[in-house]
Every structure is written in structure tokens, then in C-alpha cells.
């Protein structure tokens, strides 16, 4: 009799801020320049160089903290996190420890532990088959990335499934994107997530031993990685084993999870207050400036979609928390008319089903075209089935829905539109049993006649019109 | 035969240049030649050619600079093998400001490795010798700067002071050394020992030179150093010859036990002289001062253990050859590249910051530091300056304390309290005293410590004392 386990997941998210210059020096942020061309004595950690905190990065971090409802410290200090690694030129990372900029907060029901500022490490490239520093033929360092401002956001362990983790991270990305503080691109590394995963017997409160899973550089990999780790832990527990507290590496290409280091190998970072920097005093003016810079947040946007446009809660959140969907949605509603907002949401969901995580604004389907399609359906000029075909065509080639309807002959058939009455009559003739059942009051049997009509008309018939004709011809 | 120009103090030379009586290029060349004959081990690098004169308030009087200041294209090795041959791509703010004000770089001076030491015996480039007695140490860690100025190999110099590294060698070499208020001088480009304590300052033949040099080191805060501060007023040249109304406090904790009799004798005589000049001299209490040394030897090593992590063989300086893997490369590089004292302090600091020990060591030492700052604040409510000997003894013989780190650390007993409090302090020569076992009399230093940004008033008091003391160090100038 095996125990039912429930996963407990917490996320630790690193967000590269979109400031002009680095966290502690005046070098501009790098986007693919040749290696080591954007460096200075400070970000190279040369002897005698000193850091100076970037006021813009502090401003962005305050915006994030305020947007997430965190408590903002009046005074915050930087700490040094000491460890040796070739991508860490000073031998320590300037980060925050027990006096972070922001504590607490909440997003979509998941509470936050803290939000703090730190600097990114440089980029290491390992030459050779191992792909890691151990066993590489040589390792080369590109300091262009070193010192990029990072905000670290840590959740409480309150997520309960890989799907929820992915969904929540999507919401967080939407929030950060709407703040304009980061590119929040997981593939490019401007948004990175590590997951803490543990299992506990279903219904219990005490947390089990957790592992930290790294290297999930897409939303899909996050979901897959966490799911794989849950399964790995479940198998160990089911076999009577114990979970080791360790840091793990998820390899997306194989799905394999390997150990990076165990608890015994965990480093003592010897945190102490960074003596080269003075404490950050958060003034009322700084808070006001950060507050003023925050536009409509996804949560407020979702509420507006619900209250003003009448969308359901799930649809509203889906659109609001992916900023690009929200923008596309609003453009389409503007073209179709506010009365059609619900239908626009439905058809946008159809479009998302076809394009996945891609930005709809970057596809062949313009908001104007989608709006036109919505209006064609609303006017019953095309039925739902035909409209889906039009959408397929739009996704594939773009174009004008009305033209697609006319060139492909996808327009709705109506009673006047010669032939539909005859097709209905033929269907009744072909299935006298169904006709009899309908006559005797079995309304459900009408479906048995609609099906053949739709097949015959290749879906172009309007369902309501077909029902009306069947009843008319059966003299009901 | 000494050319007359070399007998001038730096201020006198600057004045002579501005009057057109002295050619700065000629002066530079004279000093360059003399520096090249250095037999004290004071220099690690001497300029080949004189730079074009830039004018400015310092007139073109050449400057010796402690090795740990970064100077673009010029070896800046901090006395360490791990930086042997290292030429940085940029120049420290203080050196840049002084060059712009008319003090061109003459030479880099020897020092204890990464400023860790009180005898200048911890340099990878050999010890520095005291010009008063070449069998004795010049003090440290700015020993090269102090010896060069005392011996007349350089008109003036800058050094750094973390726990006494300007004041103590100044005392042992019979010159003036001033540690400014923490934050007054930019630390940008100073190879760090302990960030919360390190300060640049002048080492000069007399108090006027110290004021003139300091006047160009402080000023507007450096935007590249977050901890630097605007100096609230310009530094002016001191003129005062009396001490009427000046209240001097004498902390019994730092002027009794553990001080050599000769040093105490000179100290008492100077206090009497101060009274004659009109000062009031009263006992004052710094009850936590005796704990300063212990707190300092936790805090400074803690910071250095982190500051010196960047010397890892990856980007610059020495890298151990043929290491098979990263850990071996790190270990061998740091094992071979650092000297014994530096490694000792890295170990001490690493331990003090370790999880489980942090609060007992680092946390506690920080609390002591606060108490010491409070002690000084209380003292300055009643006194203008606190005065005490600079060093507990005169210059000791080379090798006398190298085997006993604790005996060596005691040299900082009188200088460390002001360092921890972040307040300005300076040492002026106040006479000669024989070492405990007898022998040739050697210089003694008299130390003044004042409230933050009291440098101008402190220089005035020091000037008045200097005039009355009439100390003459010319005998050891070459």
C-alpha cells in the first residue's frame, strides 16, 4: 500500500534588468558583442577598482517590489557572497543577504519570500566534450555579461504542480514585462528559474527534504524538469529510500537529472556587509518615482477584462498575464467593437491553440483580420467550422478573411441559398427512424439528421438554420 | 655634494619653481638620479624620464607613490609576488589628482605585501632599511615611502594607512605622516587591504608639506568611490605658533603600559612643551581602546580574505604553471603567490567569517568598533585632540619580530583605535630616543587624533608643536 505524495515547489527567479549600464560600473549592457569588448576595471575585478550601485537598477527593483506588493526596506545593504569561480572576477558576488530591498509580497495567490538586487556572473564557455569545467580542454570567459543587474525573486514553497509552476512563472513574466524592466526571455537567459522541489505525504504539513533543480531555460523545460524531479523523488520514496538534499542539473535534451553538489559539498559563502558600498536609503521620492513608473499591471488588466468586457476569469487572466496577448486582444476588440469582446477572446484562444507560445502580433494574422473573422461569424456569414478553416488559412498565409471565404466557398448556406432545403429533405428521407423519433418528441434525435447535412455541405451550413429547416420540413 | 634644490622641502621647492628660481624638470632629474642610487630598498620602480610639467599648485615637485596605488602602464605590485610585473590599465584617483595638481610620478615605493605588516619585511621585493640605522626596520606598511622621504630620496610621498601604516613608519623614520578622515581621499585604484579602514595620506618632511600635499588629495568626492566624501573646506597651510585654548586629552590606556621608556619620555616632554605653548593637557578616557587591536585583527583580516580573492590566477598577475585542473591552479597560484603574513591573515579572516563563527568574531569586533568610535566622540566633547605616542617603541632590528606575529601586531597598539573610529590622525617627529638595550638614538613620533574633518585644525596644532620642537632630520638625508 503506497503512500500518496504531494509535491511542494518553490521558485527562485533571476531577472536581468534592462538598464543602460551595469549594476556596479558604467559599462553598457552587452547584447552579443564580441567577447570581452564591454569591460572596465570594475567589472573585470581588477585590483583597486570599486563598485558604485546603479540608481536605475534600484529604481527597477523598487518597481518590481511595489508591483508584487512587497514590503520595501527603508534601508538596505549589499553583502559579499564569497566563492571562487572563473566567472566571478572578484572572488565574490555582490548580492544582498539579511537586509534585502524587498520582503514578502504575493502574486496570484503565491506568496513571495523576498526580492533583492545583485550582479550577474560572467559567461563561461567550456571547450571540449564534457561541456563543464571539469574535463574541459579549456574554459574561456566572456566578461561582457559580468555585472549585469539582476533581481532575484524567491517564492515561498506554495506551488503544487509542474503545470502550476509554469503557469505562475508565465504570470510573473507578464507582470515584469508590463513593468518594462526586463526582456524576460527565458531562452536568452534574461529570465531564469531554479526550482526547489520536495514531496510530502498528501494532506500533511511538514516539508520534506528538498532538492534544487537548475538549468531550465524555457517554460516547457521548467514544467518537464519539475515533473521529472517529482517522479524521481516519488520513486525513491516508494522504494523506501530517502531524498538527499542536493543541487541538481536538468538536461532538457535527455530529460536526465544529475547531481551538481550535495549538501556536504555546499559552500560556506561567508557573507558579510560589502564595505565598498554605502547602505541604500530608500526615500519617499524614490518610492513615489517607482510607483509612478508602474503602468497597468496584469492583475488590474485581468480585472478590467472581467468587469468591463465581461470575460470569464480564466480567459481574462490568460490574456492579461501574457502582455503580448493582452495587447493583441485589445487591438482586436478595438477593431471588432467592444460588444464582441467575448467572441474575440474565444477566437484568440483558437489562434493561440494554433501558434502556441508565439506572439500573435508576430504571426500572419493581424488583429484587423481576426476582428473581421469574428464579425463574419457574428453575422452568421460563416459558421464556426468554416471560420476555423479560415483561421487555419490566415495562420498559414495571412490575408483577408472575407476573400478567403469567397475564394474557398466557405460562406454559410441558408434556406434561400439554393440547395440547403433539398439537402435537409434528403437527410430526412435517408433516416426515417430519426425523423420518427423527432416527431414523437425526442429532440436529441435531431442531431442524427444535422450530422449528414453538415457532411454534405462540408460544414458550411448554419447549424441553427439546419435545425429550423428540419423542424419546418417535419411540420413541427 | 648635495645640490641645494634637494635640501628644500617640497613646499619650498614648489615656491621656488613658481618664482622661476627652480626648473621642475631639473628638480625631477635630480631626484630621479638620486632615487636610482637607492640602497635602502625603498623603491620598486623609478621613472626613466621626467613627464612634461603640468603647472598646478604643487609646482611640479615629484612624488613617490606607494606600490599599491594603481598607475597606468607602471608596475603596481602591492609588494606581492602574485602581482609581479603587473601594470594596470588605469591610474588611482588620488595619483591622478596629484599629477594634475603638479606632482608627477617619480617612483613607486616598496611596502609590506598588500599593506600587511609593520616593518616592511613582508615585501616580495625585499625589506626596506631605516635611514637612521640600516640594521633596523623603517616601520610599515608604507615603509618605502617613509624611508625615501626621510633619506631625501624623494621630496614627498603618499602611502596608505589601514591600522597605522602611514603614521607608524613616519614615526620610525622621523617624518610627518597623516591619515585623513575615512572617506576624505578616494580609494579608487588603491589595491585594497581592508576596505572599511584603508585611507591614503601624505608622508612628508614637515607639517607644511603634509598640508600642501593633502590639500590636493581631498576635495570633491570621487564618483567612482561610493564611500568617499566631500571635504567640507579647503586644506590651508598652517601658520599657528601657539596653542592658546587648545585642549589636549591624554588617554592613559595608550600612553603607559607597553610603551618604551624612551618613547614615553619624549611624549611627556612634548606634553610639557604643549603646555608652555598655551595648551591645556588633561587625562581622558578611551576605555575600549585596549580592545581595539583584537577587534582590528578580526575585521581587517576578514575584509582582506575577501578583497584578496580576486588574485586567483585567472585574469592577471601570477598563475601557477601546469596545473591539471582549476582547483589545483587556484591553490598553487595562491600558495606560491602570497607571502606568509598575507596567507596568515587570509586564514584568520576566512575563519572569522565562517558560518557559525561570524557573530562571535566579526559581529563582536564590529560592536567593539562602535564602542571605540563612541569613546572618541565622548572625548571630543571635552577635548580638541587626543594625543598619544604613535608607536610603542623606536625602530627595531630587522628580523627581531618576524617570528612572533603577535609582537609585531603590538606595533599598531596606539594607531589602530583612530583607524577603527575613521577619524583623522597624524604623527610628527618629537625627538630621538635610544632603544631599550641602548644604542644610537632613533626618532620618536607624537600622535594627534581629532574629530572627523578636523584636519585643518590638527595641522595648525602640529605646526605649532613642530616649530617649538625644532626636530632636525637632515642628518640622514643623503
Task: Sum up the structure in keywords.
heterodimer; A: 476 residues; alpha+beta; Arc Repressor Mutant, subunit A; 3 domains; 10-stranded mixed beta sheet; 17 strands; B: 478 residues; alpha/beta; Amidase signature (AS) enzymes; 11-stranded mixed beta sheet
Give your account of this protein's structure.
The complex is a heterodimer of chains A (476) and B (478). The mean pLDDT of chain A is 91. By secondary structure, chain A is of the alpha+beta class. Chain A has three domains: 5-291, no CATH class; 296-408; 420-473, Arc Repressor Mutant, subunit A (Orthogonal Bundle). In chain A, 39% of the residues lie in helices and 19% in strands. With 478 residues, chain B is an alpha/beta fold. Chain B contains 14 helices and eleven strands. At the A-B interface, loops of A face helix 8 of B.
Secondary-structure blueprint of this entry?
The complex is a heterodimer of chains A (476) and B (478).
Chain A lengths: L4 E12 L38 H13 L3 E2 L2 E2 L2 E4 L9 E4 L6 E2 L2 E2 L2 E10 L3 E5 L10 E5 L6 E7 L6 H18 L11 E11 L9 E6 L2 H20 L7 E6 L4 E7 L9 E2 L6 E2 L2 H10 L4 H12 L3 H9 L1 H14 L4 H15 L11 H12 L5 H14 L3 H8 L11 H11 L1 H8 L7 H10 L6 H11 L3
Parallel strand pairs in A: 13-14
Antiparallel strand pairs in A: 1-11, 1-12, 2-6, 3-17, 4-5, 4-16, 6-8, 7-8, 8-11, 9-10, 12-13, 14-15
Chain B lengths: L9 H9 L5 H13 L6 E4 L16 E4 L26 H8 L4 E5 L33 H8 L5 E6 L5 H7 L2 E4 L19 E6 L2 H9 L31 E5 L9 H16 L3 E5 L7 H16 L18 H12 L2 H14 L4 H25 L2 E5 L15 H5 L6 H6 L3 E9 L8 E8 L5 H15 L9
Helix pairs in contact in B: 4-5, 6-14, 8-10, 8-11
Amino acid at each position: 500500500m503506497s503512500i500518496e505524495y504531494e509535491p511542494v515547489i518553490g521558485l527562485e527567479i533571476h531577472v536581468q534588468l534592462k538598464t543602460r549600464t551595469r549594476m556596479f560600473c558604467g559599462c553598457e549592457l552587452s547584447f552579443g558583442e564580441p567577447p570581452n569588448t564591454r569591460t572596465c576595471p570594475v567589472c573585470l575585478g581588477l585590483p583597486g577598482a570599486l563598485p558604485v550601485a546603479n540608481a536605475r537598477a534600484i529604481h527597477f527593483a523598487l518597481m518590481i517590489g511595489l508591483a508584487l506588493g512587497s514590503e520595501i526596506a527603508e534601508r538596505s545593504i549589499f553583502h559579499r557572497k564569497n566563492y571562487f569561480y572563473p566567472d566571478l572576477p572578484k572572488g565574490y558576488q555582490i548580492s544582498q543577504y539579511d537586509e534585502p530591498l524587498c520582503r514578502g509580497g504575493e502574486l496570484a495567490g503565491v506568496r513571495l519570500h523576498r526580492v533583492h538586487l545583485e550582479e550577474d556572473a560572467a559567461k563561461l564557455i567550456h571547450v571540449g566534450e564534457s561541456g563543464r569545467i571539469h574535463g574541459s580542454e579549456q574554459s574561456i570567459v566572456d566578461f561582457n555579461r559580468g555585472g549585469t543587474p539582476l533581481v532575484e525573486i524567491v517564492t515561498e514553497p506554495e506551488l503544487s504542480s509542474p503545470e502550476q509552476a509554469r503557469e505562475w512563472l508565465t504570470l510573473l513574466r507578464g507582470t515584469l514585462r508590463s513593468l518594462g524592466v526586463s526582456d524576460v526571455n527565458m531562452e536568452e537567459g534574461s529570465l531564469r528559474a531554479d526550482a526547489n522541489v520536495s514531496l510530502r505525504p498528501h494532506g500533511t504539513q511538514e516539508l520534506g527534504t528538498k532538492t534544487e533543480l537548475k538549468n531550465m531555460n524555457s517554460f516547457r523545460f521548467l514544467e518537464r524538469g519539475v515533473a521529472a524531479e517529482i517522479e524521481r523523488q516519488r520513486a525513491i520514496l516508494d522504494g523506501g529510500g530517502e531524498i538527499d538534499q542536493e543541487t541538481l542539473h536538468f538536461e532538457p535534451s535527455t530529460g536526465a537529472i544529475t547531481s551538481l553538489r550535495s549538501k556536504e559539498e555546499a559552500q560556506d559563502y561567508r557573507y558579510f556587509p560589502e564595505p565598498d558600498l554605502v547602505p541604500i536609503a530608500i526615500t519617499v521620492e524614490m518610492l513615489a518615482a517607482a510607483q509612478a513608473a508602474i503602468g497597468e499591471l496584469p492583475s488590474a488588466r485581468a480585472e478590467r477584462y472581467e468587469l468591463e468586457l465581461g470575460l470569464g476569469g480564466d480567459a481574462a487572466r490568460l490574456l492579461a498575464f501574457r502582455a503580448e496577448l493582452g495587447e493583441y486582444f485589445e487591438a482586436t476588440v478595438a477593431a471588432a467593437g467592444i460588444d464582441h469582446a467575448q467572441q474575440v477572446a474565444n477566437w484568440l484562444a483558437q489562434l493561440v491553440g494554433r501558434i502556441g507560445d508565439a506572439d500573435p502580433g508576430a504571426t500572419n494574422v493581424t488583429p484587423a483580420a481576426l476582428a473581421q473573422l469574428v464579425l463574419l461569424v457574428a453575422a452568421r456569414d460563416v459558421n464556426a467550422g468554416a471560420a476555423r478553416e479560415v483561421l487555419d488559412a490566415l495562420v498559414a498565409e495571412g490575408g483577408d478573411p472575407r476573400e478567403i471565404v469567397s475564394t474557398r466557398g466557405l460562406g454559410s448556406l441558408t434556406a434561400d441559398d439554393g440547395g440547403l432545403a433539398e439537402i435537409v429533405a434528403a437527410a430526412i428521407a435517408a433516416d426515417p427512424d430519426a425523423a420518427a423519433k423527432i416527431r414523437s418528441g425526442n429532440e436529441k434525435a435531431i442531431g442524427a439528421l444535422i450530422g449528414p447535412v453538415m457532411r454534405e455541405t462540408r460544414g458550411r451550413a448554419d447549424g441553427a438554420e439546419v435545425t429550423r429547416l428540419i423542424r419546418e420540413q417535419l411540420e413541427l | 655634494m648635495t645640490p641645494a634644490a634637494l635640501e628644500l622641502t617640497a613646499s619650498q621647492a614648489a615656491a621656488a619653481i613658481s618664482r622661476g628660481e627652480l626648473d621642475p624638470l631639473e628638480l625631477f632629474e635630480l631626484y630621479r638620479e638620486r632615487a636610482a642610487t637607492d640602497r635602502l630598498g625603498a623603491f620598486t620602480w623609478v621613472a626613466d624620464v621626467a613627464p612634461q610639467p603640468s603647472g598646478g599648485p604643487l609646482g611640479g615637485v615629484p612624488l613617490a607613490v606607494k606600490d599599491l596605488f594603481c598607475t597606468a602602464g607602471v608596475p603596481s605590485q602591492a609588494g606581492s609576488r602574485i602581482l609581479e610585473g603587473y601594470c594596470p590599465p588605469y591610474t588611482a584617483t588620488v595619483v591622478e589628482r596629484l599629477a594634475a595638481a603638479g606632482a608627477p610620478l617619480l617612483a613607486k615605493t616598496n611596502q609590506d605585501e598588500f599593506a600587511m605588516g609593520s616593518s616592511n619585511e613582508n615585501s616580495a621585493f625585499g625589506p626596506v632599511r631605516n635611514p637612521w640605522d640600516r640594521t633596523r626596520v623603517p616601520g610599515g606598511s608604507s615603509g618605502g615611502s617613509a624611508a625615501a622621504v626621510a633619506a631625501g630620496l624623494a621630496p614627498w610621498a603618499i602611502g596608505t594607512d589601514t591600522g597605522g601604516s602611514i603614521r607608524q613608519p613616519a614615526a620610525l623614520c622621523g617624518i610627518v605622516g597623516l591619515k585623513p578622515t575615512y572617506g576624505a581621499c578616494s580609494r579608487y585604484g588603491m589595491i585594497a587591504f581592508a576596505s572599511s579602514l584603508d585611507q591614503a595620506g601624505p608622508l612628508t618632511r614637515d607639517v607644511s608639506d603634509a598640508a600642501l600635499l593633502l590639500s590636493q588629495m581631498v576635495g570633491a568626492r570621487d564618483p567612482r568611490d561610493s564611500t568617499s566624501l566631500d571635504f567640507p573646506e579647503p586644506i590651508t597651510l598652517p601658520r599657528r605658533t601657539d596653542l592658546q585654548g587648545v585642549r589636549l586629552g591624554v588617554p592613559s590606556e595608550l600612553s603607559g603600559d607597553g610603551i618604551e621608556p624612551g618613547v614615553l619620555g619624549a611624549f611627556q616632554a612634548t606634553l610639557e612643551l604643549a603646555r608652555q605653548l598655551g595648551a591645556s593637557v588633561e587625562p581622558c578616557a578611551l576605555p575600549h581602546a585596549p580592545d581595539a587591536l583584537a577587534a582590528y585583527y578580526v575585521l581587517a583580516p576578514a575584509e582582506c580574505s575577501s578583497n584578496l580573492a580576486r588574485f586567483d590566477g585567472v585574469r592577471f598577475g601570477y598563475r601557477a604553471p601546469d596545473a591539471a585542473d582549476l582547483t589545483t591552479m587556484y591553490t598553487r597560484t595562491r600558495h606560491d603567490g602570497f607571502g606568509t603574513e598575507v596567507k596568515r591573515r587570509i586564514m584568520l579572516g576566512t575563519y572569522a567569517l565562517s558560518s557559525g563563527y561570524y557573530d562571535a568574531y566579526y559581529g563582536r569586533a564590529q560592536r567593539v568598533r562602535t564602542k571605540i568610535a563612541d569613546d572618541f566622540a565622548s572625548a571630543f566633547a571635552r577635548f580638541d585632540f587626543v594625543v598619544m605616542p604613535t608607536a610603542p617603541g623606536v625602530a627595531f632590528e630587522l628580523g627581531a619580530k618576524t617570528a612572533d606575529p603577535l609582537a609585531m601586531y603590538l606595533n599598531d597598539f596606539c594607531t589602530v583605535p583612530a583607524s577603527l573610529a575613521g577619524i583623522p590622525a597624524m604623527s610628527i617627529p618629537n625627538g630621538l630616543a635610544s632603544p631599550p638595550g641602548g644604542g644610537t638614538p632613533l626618532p620618536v613620533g607624537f600622535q594627534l587624533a581629532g574629530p572627523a574633518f578636523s584636519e585643518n585644525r590638527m595641522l595648525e596644532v602640529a605646526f605649532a608643536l613642530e616649530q617649538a620642537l625644532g626636530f632636525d632630520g637632515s642628518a640622514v638625508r643623503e
